[in-house]
Design goal:
This protein is α+β, with helices and mostly antiparallel strands. It has a domain at 32-75. The chain has helices spanning 15-25, 34-40, 47-52, 63-70, and strands at residues 2-3, 43-45, 59-62.
Length: 75
């Protein structure tokens, strides 16, 4: 499962961080966010289920992994 440590609710990238990243990697030409991936069905938000397992961070898994998880009982 993927855990979003730098989720927008937790902290936004500041200008200094953005400038440093651009200096290393160059200008950003495309962005695909976690929200985009969830909306497109590439990722499935399993945060509520993860909370029951003691995971405190927003959590998602790929649609393929979710298809396997759906087959398992919740207990």
């Amino acid at each position: 499962m993927l855990t979003a440590l730098h989720h927008p609710e937790n902290e936004a990238m500041n200008d200094q961080d953005r400038d440093a990243a651009e200096a290393i990697f160059g200008e950003l030409i495309y962005s695909y966010s976690r929200a985009d991936a969830i909306r497109d069905g590439v990722l499935v938000d399993v945060s509520e289920r993860a909370k029951r397992a003691g995971i405190k961070h927003p959590t998602a898994c790929t649609a393929g992994v979710w298809a396997l998880i759906e087959c398992l009982p919740e207990n």
